[in-house]
């Protein structure tokens, strides 16, 4: 009789324990981290693609017995601290506030912008579902997704280190979770409703790229002094134009060497392979008082890049008086841009 009563009491206690486990709701929390989104060095000449990885870890704790947890997540990315509220295109800036355009996409083809459900221009977060087992006393699961970034080809760039921190409210991970000790629960209706609980976290990262100081020479027109009948009795003045492009805020110096036939600092044009020469000079100003040479900081032309084409005029002069044999005289000048 007493044995029967003890067995009944044991079964009752087990049933009570099992009932407590079934009725207790487990608590699920999630954390997330993102690797840096670095595009390295960009010049604007071509697209530059890069990636970063978001990793999400969710942990379920509580008195669960062989449970299954399902989590539905929405990962939102906004404009960033330096984005001026703009998500299409996004932008990084250097210390002067000069902008470099870029974009973050949800797909490797880079056709679907990764956005934020609160931003009308790009209301397209990334959606992720995560399922994992929760044995007695708790369990966890993890998942990851890739940020596909592109700095498109673009003109007018300014040199410097560009960045955009996506901190604070500029990333949002919203999630809802469901948990069941019997079978597999349905996923919550969305990342903001359904299930038995939820939360919101961030996954901060910084997008960065470096625009180097860079210059390219586009054209250098010939300096033709024309034909002079007889001896050279008057100064012969003509001009030519140099065109080049430097990244914005790049300090540059343009130098002209003395040519192929100079004697000391006296430039000369030569008649073919003969010993006959015509002296001439190149200047930085229209009054032709500032000789254009190759000593940086002394007799070169200096300026700052604008990110677009810039032009300089070379003022040439064949001084009078010179008496030389008839023929075609020429010389070759090397233009050097130092930056």
UniProtKB/TrEMBL annotation:
Keywords: Signal
The keyword Phosphoprotein appears for this protein: no
Domain Spore coat protein U/FanG, chain residue ranges per copy: 25-164, 202-336
Top-rank taxon: Bacteria
InterPro entries in UniProt: Spore_coat_component, Spore_coat_U/FanG
Signal peptide range in chain numbering: 1-21
Alphabetized SMART domains for the sequence: SCPU (SM00972)
Name of the molecule in the record: Spore coat U domain-containing protein
Organism: Luteimonas aestuarii
